[in-house]
């Protein structure tokens, strides 16, 4: 089984435990919005892209809201979760992408649901699974931190480290230390929920926090 499929099961478990109307780390989204987003990302890439394109955002948001609203009663919620659990059809480009397209998405959205309700206990994952998440974290972090002035080094205590961003001229480097999932949450902007330690000169730490 691919790692993203394991994390899809984690996401479904988290959504089922939370129920509709539960808070998430995604501002303005309850659990049913997040479930609807996952379904639309996999069944309608055009709608998913519309959420980040200004000229198409209105229509995409309406479609997401309509699907989320369908999941607010018990039967609709069960049907929405079944669609999340089923994943994309085999002919979907999202399915073709495997872990590259889906692992970060599944891990982050699982934590959006779990930590939206205050649950920060780490899930059980094998060492190989965590290694795969770290590999994809390195790629995601290079994009996420690209506009920061200080350099960024990610460190898993007792484990791997990666320099994901060189410093700009005149800036220093900060070290962000935490477990793999928390480092991923920090890189993807969930800084308030990420359990990390940040080391560096005060001005560099402040610059990173302001990104």
Element layout with pairings:
Blueprint: H1 3-18, H2 31-43, H3 45-50, H4 57-69, H5 74-86, H6 93-96, H7 98-116, H8 127-144, E1 151-155, E2 161-165, E3 173-177, H9 180-187, E4 197-199, H10 202-209
Parallel strand pairs: 1-3
Antiparallel strand pairs: 1-2, 3-4
Helix pairs in contact: 1-7, 2-4, 2-5, 7-8, 8-9
Give the number of DSSP strands.
4
Query: Into which percent range does the helicity of residues fall?
Result: 55-70%
Shape: globular
Count of helical stretches: 10
Count of all domains = 2
Structure notes:
The protein is of the alpha+beta class. It folds into 2 domains: 3-116, no CATH class; 127-209, Nonspecific Lipid-transfer Protein, Chain A (2-Layer Sandwich). Helices cover 56% and strands 9% of the residues. The protein is built from 10 helices and 4 strands; from the N terminus they run H-H-H-H-H-H-H-H-E-E-E-H-E-H. The protein has helices at 3-18, 31-43, 45-50, 57-69, 74-86, 93-96, 98-116, 127-144, 180-187, 202-209; strands at residues 151-155, 161-165, 173-177, 197-199. It has a 4-stranded mixed β-sheet, with helices on one face. Strand 1 (151-155) and strand 2 form a beta hairpin. Helix 7 (98-116) crosses helix 8. The chain is globular and about 55 Å long. It starts with a helix and ends with a helix.
């Amino acid at each position: 089984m691919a790692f993203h499929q394991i994390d899809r099961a984690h996401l479904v478990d988290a959504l089922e435990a939370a129920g509709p109307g539960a808070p998430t780390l995604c501002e303005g989204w309850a659990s049913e919005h997040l479930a609807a987003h996952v379904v639309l990302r996999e069944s309608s890439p055009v709608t998913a892209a519309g959420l980040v394109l200004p000229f198409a955002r209105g229509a995409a948001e309406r479609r997401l809201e309509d699907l989320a609203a369908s999941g607010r009663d018990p039967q609709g919620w069960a049907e929405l979760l079944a669609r999340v659990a089923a994943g994309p059809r085999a002919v979907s480009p999202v399915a073709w992408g495997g872990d590259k397209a889906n692992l970060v998405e599944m891990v982050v959205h699982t934590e959006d649901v779990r930590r939206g309700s205050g649950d920060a206990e780490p899930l059980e994952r094998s060492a190989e699974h965590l290694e795969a998440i770290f590999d994809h974290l390195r790629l995601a972090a290079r994009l996420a931190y690209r506009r920061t002035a200080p350099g960024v080094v990610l460190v898993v205590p007792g484990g791997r480290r990666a320099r994901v961003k060189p410093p700009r001229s005149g800036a220093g480097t900060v070290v962000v230390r935490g477990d793999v999932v928390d480092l991923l949450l920090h890189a993807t902007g969930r800084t308030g929920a990420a359990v990390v330690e940040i080391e560096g000169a005060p001005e560099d730490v402040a610059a990173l926090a302001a990104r």
